[in-house]
Amino acid sequence: MNYRTYIFKLFFRILLLVGAIIGLIYTIYLEKTVYSIVLAVLILYLIGSTYNFVKRRFVAMEDFFEAVKYRDFSRWFPEDRGPKDIRFLYTGFNEINRTIKEINSKNEAQYVYLQKILEMVDIGIIAYNLETGNVLWSNDSFGEILDIPSFKNIKFVENRKPELYNTVFETYHREPNSISIALQNDSIKILISDTVFQVDDDAFKLIVIQDIDNTLNKNESESWKKLLSVMTHEIMNSIAPISSLADTLQRNLQLAIEQPNESHLELEDLNAGIKTIKNRSEGLLQFAKTYRSLSKVTNLNLQRIKISELFGNIQLLMEPSIKAKNINIEFDITPPKLELDIDTHLIEQVLINLILNAVDAVKDQANAEIKVIATQNSNRDLIIKVYDNGSGIPQDILENIFVPFFTSKATGSGIGLSLCKQIMLLHKGRIIVKSIEREGSVFSLVF
C-alpha cells in the first residue's frame, strides 16, 4: 500500500536524523571540529528535507479540503507530476471529485425531473419555512388556483389577502379538508391538506391544494360526453328506422288520399308498419327505463342477514325455472353461519342477474351446472361466487362486460352487469370475473 511506503520513508528519514544527531554529539565530545560541522550541515538538511516531505502531503490535503469547503468539485489535481506518493494522493482526490460530481449530476437531474412533474400537475403545492416565511418551493398551479402572483415570502399574502392567509397558511389541515375560499370575482371550493417536516434545524410546512370545482367540472364534462355519445348512438339507431318507415307510410297514405283510384293502400302493410313503429318505440322507452335503473341506485338500506337466508330466498325464487331447463343448481355456505351487512334487495338483484347470465351461458351444455358458494378467506373477506360450466366469455370482450350498455347478446341491454358493479361499489365491495372459453366462468362478489 502507498501509505506503507510513505511511513517507511518517513521512518528512514527520522532514523537518519537521529543517527546524525548522535554522530554530532559524539564528534563534539571527541573535539572533531570538521566532522561536527559536516554532521551539523547534514542534520539541517535532513530536518528541512523531512519537513518538506511531510508538508507536501498536508498542503495537498489542505488544498483538497479547501475545495470541499467551497464545494469546488471541478478542481483537478495533477496525477502525472510530483513525487509518487503525492501523485497517488492526487489520484484519490480526483476519484472522489468525479464520484461527487456524478452524484450531484444525478441528484440535479432527479430534482429537475421532479420539478417538471410538479409543474405539470394541476394540484397546487408550496413549501415554506415556518419561522421566516420564506418559500422553499412552489409550483405555478398554487398561484393560479388562489389567483395570486408568484411570491418569495408568505408575508406577501398576509399583506394582500389576510383572510386567505389565515385560511391557507395559519390554519392546520392535518387531514384533507374541503373548504370554500373567496377570490376577487368568485368563490371556489378547494381540497387542502398540509404537513410539517424538519430539515436540520429548520421546520417547513408543505401545503397541497386542489380546485374541487374545476376537477368535478372536468369529470362531469367527460361523463356527459361519454353519456351523450352512448345515448345518441342508441337513440339514433331507433329513431332513424322509425323516421324512415313513418315517412314511407306517410307518402303511401298521402297518395291513397289524393289518388284513391290509382293508388291502393294495403291495410295489412299499414298495420305491419305501425306495429313495427310501436315495437321500436317501446324498445326506445325500454332503453330509457334501463338507463334510469342504472342511475337511480344511490342509497343503501343495510341490515344484518344470514347468508343461508339470502340463499334460501334466491333458491325458492329461481330453482323451479332453472330445474325445468335441465340445469343443476347448487348452493353451499362454508362455514354455515356466515352473516353479512347488506341491502338485501339489491344483493338479491345482483345474484339474480349473475344466475340468469349463468343460465344463458350453460343452455347448450349437456351437463349444465351452476354453483353459488359463500366462503370467508384468510383476510376475513366474505366472498360469494357464482360458477357455471358454460361457454365462457371471450378474452377480447372480458374487460368491457361491466361497461354500461355494452353487450354481446342480441337481446341484451348491457345494463345488468353495470348495475351489479354499481351495487357492489355502494357496498364498498368488488365484483371480479374469471372466465375461460368453453370451460365456464366464475363471478366473485367480495365484501
What features would you describe in this structure?
Keywords: Kinase, Membrane, Phosphoprotein, Transferase, Transmembrane, Transmembrane helix. Pfam families: HATPase_c. The chain crosses the membrane at residues 7-29, 35-54. The protein has 447 residues and is α+β, with helices and mostly antiparallel strands. The chain has 4 domains: 2-100, no CATH class; 122-212, 2-Layer Sandwich (Beta-Lactamase); 216-295; 303-446, Heat Shock Protein 90 (2-Layer Sandwich), CATH 3.30.565. The chain is 57% helix and 19% strand. The chain is built from 12 helices and 12 strands. The protein has helices at residues 2-30, 33-69, 84-120, 140-146, 155-160, 162-170, 212-258, 267-295, 307-324, 344-362, 395-398, 416-426, and strands spanning 124-129, 135-138, 177-182, 187-199, 202-211, 303-306, 328-334, 339-342, 369-376, 382-388, 430-436, 440-446. The protein has a 5-stranded antiparallel β-sheet. Strands 7-9-10-12-11 form a 5-stranded mixed β-sheet. α1 packs antiparallel against α2 (33-69) and α7 runs antiparallel to α8. The radius of gyration is 43 Å and the shape is elongated. The relative contact order is 0.05.
Integer-rounded radius of gyration: 43 Å
Helix content: 55-70%
Q: How many distinct domains? A: 4
The main sheet comes to: 5 strands, antiparallel
